[in-house]
Fold this sequence. Notes:
The protein is α/β, with parallel strands linked by helices. It has four helices and 14 strands. A six-stranded mixed beta sheet has the order 1-2-3-4-5-6, with helices on one face. It has a six-stranded mixed beta sheet with strand order 7-8-9-10-13-14. The protein has a two-stranded antiparallel sheet with strand order 11-12. A hairpin with an 8-residue loop joins strand 8 and strand 9. Residues 51, 53, 127, 144 line the site of zinc ion.
Amino acid sequence: MLLVKKPQSYHAFSANTYIVASDGECAIIDPAVPYCEELISGKLKYIFLTHAHFDHMLDINSWASKTGAPVLVSEGDADKLSDGNLNCYTLFSGRNNGYYGKYQTVREGDTFALGSETLRVLELSGHTSGSIALLSEGMSFVGDTVFAGGGFGRWDLPTGDLNALKKSIGRICELDGDTVLYSGHGESTTVQKYIEEFKRQRFI
Ligand SMILES: [Zn+2]
């Protein structure tokens, strides 16, 4: 099973950053903390984005330039990287900004080896058109699709879609009940707990 670190973010918009590791290799998911050598153990192989909202990639430049690891984003969200209107930087800060460096795109079913573990892409459009989760044994990094407590992501931002979001929440709820869900904001939960909490909320 992957080892998971969740370093503290110093930004006002506190998206969660996760650093996952297995057998001397590691990956960062949603780099919203500045690059720091002490955070990584062994070789950093991948820089993943669960989606291309600005708060999930505030420190992507430092990680990409210091490590040379590939930036991996879904096909559906690649256009948001360098567009402050689509990645919401403009909306929240009044400045058009983004990531203008190299990247590679990923899609449903792609798998990435990390030490003795793998990460697999699950497409979860709804919060954005290209939101994804990264699945590994016993855990899933779900970005802003669902949150502990029965919550889920906004669908009113550019390329958001409520019907797609409902389907994506359904996909997460179909995962094994013990799967730990690591969200883009807040605490982690499990699929089973999330289903119970979601039913209590009955928002949608
Ligand atoms: Zn988001």
